[in-house]
């Protein structure tokens, strides 16, 4: 006989295992909160902006080819900023105990489409160090680009600034807790249905009917214990009289 599960069965299972589901959700949220607030290292972020000037003082109009060349120059600069030639000098100037490859993982360089502004973002466990790395990288790049490409068209538009009470960008505590709540809820629901699936005990008349595939013809009622005790204490003669009276 093919077994089907109705929507009512699903809600009955959820109601039956409600405490389990809520408990797992709360536990997951608690673990995420403790990990986010006490065990995860805060990561701070600092950004500086570099302006690449278009060297065309003779004319105020640019054709498509010149604009494309400037965009390609911006892309080239983005690569040079994170090159070992630049990062090695940054490490030397700040006396950092890391390699250029490790420092590169902390840097993000990008620019908006058709923009002359390059955004340099640094992430570090200390906010003041992120600020120092961002500003020093911009300064070293500004100096070295003159030697590498024989150009002087780079200016620091907006340096990174230290703040008294910086806010970390990682971990995102509330987001972590929200994700943990969803995961805990899904885990609780999954375990609830798994336990219900593994529970093969017969508890109701419907379970019997589903098991044997036949309709129920009668039900033997269960007498309360006090009734059974009172009946068993009566003398045999009284019980025979009651039986004869019933007949």
UniProtKB/TrEMBL annotation:
<dbReference type="InterPro" id="IPR050445">
    <property type="entry name" value="Bact_polysacc_biosynth/exp"/>
</dbReference>
<keyword id="KW-1133">Transmembrane helix</keyword>
<dbReference type="Pfam" id="PF02706">
    <property type="entry name" value="Wzz"/>
</dbReference>
<dbReference type="GO" id="GO:0005886">
    <property type="term" value="C:plasma membrane"/>
</dbReference>
<feature type="domain" description="Tyrosine-protein kinase G-rich">
    <location>
        <begin position="142"/>
        <end position="194"/>
    </location>
</feature>
<feature type="transmembrane region" description="Helical">
    <location>
        <begin position="174"/>
        <end position="195"/>
    </location>
</feature>
<dbReference type="GO" id="GO:0004713">
    <property type="term" value="F:protein tyrosine kinase activity"/>
</dbReference>
<dbReference type="InterPro" id="IPR032807">
    <property type="entry name" value="GNVR"/>
</dbReference>
<dbReference type="InterPro" id="IPR003856">
    <property type="entry name" value="LPS_length_determ_N"/>
</dbReference>
<comment type="similarity">
    <text>Belongs to the CpsC/CapA family.</text>
</comment>
<keyword id="KW-0472">Membrane</keyword>
<feature type="transmembrane region" description="Helical">
    <location>
        <begin position="18"/>
        <end position="40"/>
    </location>
</feature>
<dbReference type="Pfam" id="PF13807">
    <property type="entry name" value="GNVR"/>
</dbReference>
<protein>
    <submittedName>
        <fullName>Wzz/FepE/Etk N-terminal domain-containing protein</fullName>
    </submittedName>
</protein>
<feature type="domain" description="Polysaccharide chain length determinant N-terminal">
    <location>
        <begin position="3"/>
        <end position="94"/>
    </location>
</feature>
<keyword id="KW-1003">Cell membrane</keyword>
<keyword id="KW-0812">Transmembrane</keyword>
């Amino acid at each position: 006989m093919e077994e089907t599960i109705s929507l009512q069965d699903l809600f009955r299972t959820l109601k039956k295992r409600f405490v389990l589901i809520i408990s797992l959700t709360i536990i997951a949220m608690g673990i995420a909160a403790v990990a986010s607030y006490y065990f995860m290292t805060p990561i701070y972020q600092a950004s500086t902006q570099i302006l690449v000037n278009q060297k065309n003082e003779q004319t105020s109009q640019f054709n498509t080819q010149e604009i494309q060349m400037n965009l390609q120059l911006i892309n080239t600069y983005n690569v040079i900023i994170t090159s070992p030639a630049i990062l090695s000098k940054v490490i030397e100037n700040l006396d950092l105990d890391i390699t250029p490859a490790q420092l590169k993982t902390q840097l993000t360089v990008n620019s908006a489409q058709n923009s002359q502004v390059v955004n340099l973002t640094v992430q570090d466990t200390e906010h003041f160090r992120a600020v120092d790395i961002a500003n020093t990288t911009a300064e070293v790049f500004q100096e070295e680009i003159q030697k590498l490409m024989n150009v002087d068209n780079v200016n620091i538009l907006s340096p990174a600034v230290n703040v008294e009470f910086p806010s970390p960008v990682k971990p995102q505590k509330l987001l972590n807790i929200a994700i943990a709540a969803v995961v805990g809820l899904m885990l609780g629901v999954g375990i609830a249905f798994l336990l219900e699936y593994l529970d093969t005990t017969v508890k109701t008349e419907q379970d019997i009917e589903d098991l044997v595939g036949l309709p129920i013809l009668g039900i033997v009622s269960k007498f309360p214990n006090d009734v059974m005790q009172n009946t068993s204490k009566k003398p045999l003669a009284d019980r025979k009289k009651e039986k004869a009276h019933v007949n």
